[in-house]
Amino acid sequence: MAETRDNVRYLPSHEWARLETDGTVTVGISDHAQDALGDVVFVELPEVGRAVQVGEEVAVVESVKAASDIYAPIAGTIISSNEALDSAPETVNEAPFDEGWFFRLQPTDDKALNELLTPEDYRALCAADDH
Fold first, then answer.
1. What strand order describes the sheet that includes 76-81?
2. N or C: which end of the chain has fewer CB within 10 A?
3. How far, in Å, CA of 60 to CA of 49, rounded?
4. 3 occurs within a structural domain
5. Please, are residues 113 and 92 in contact by the beta-carbon 8 Å criterion?
6. Beta-bridge mates of residue 119
7. Cβ contact 33:96 at 8 Å
């Protein structure tokens, strides 16, 4: 079974969002998503400084199987992209919650994370997907 972390919130589209101690939010894709994608071969990251809205397509992840859009879980401004993924996209498969993050943003509303799926809700969604 795919790993689910309790310190993050999730989207039904399998992105995760983690509130950092400095008030920024780190975003990546879940272990379930990277497993379904297979070997990640390319990641297109968002431009730093870009303002994004909830649900906006902000990045792309390509695997040997498919290309998938990555959506903004909350509104905010992109403050950094994980440039290490340019030369090592497989990091998304190896450590999706750690070194395999996609981007960080400064949220417009720091309460917006409360609108996302809890770890329990996300586990139930993934369990339903697996049947």
1. 9-10, 15-19, 25-29, 103-107, 76-81, 51-52
2. C
3. 18
4. no
5. no
6. none
7. yes
| pTM for the model | 0.95
Burial 6-41 (b: 16+ CB within 10 A, else e): eebbbbeebbbbbbeeeebbbbbbbbbbbebbeebe
pLDDT band at 70 (very low <50, low <70, confident <90, very high): very high
Residue 2: pLDDT band by 50, 70, 90 thresholds?
confident
CATH number at 83 reads: 2.40.50.100
Q: Which amino acid is at 45?
A: L
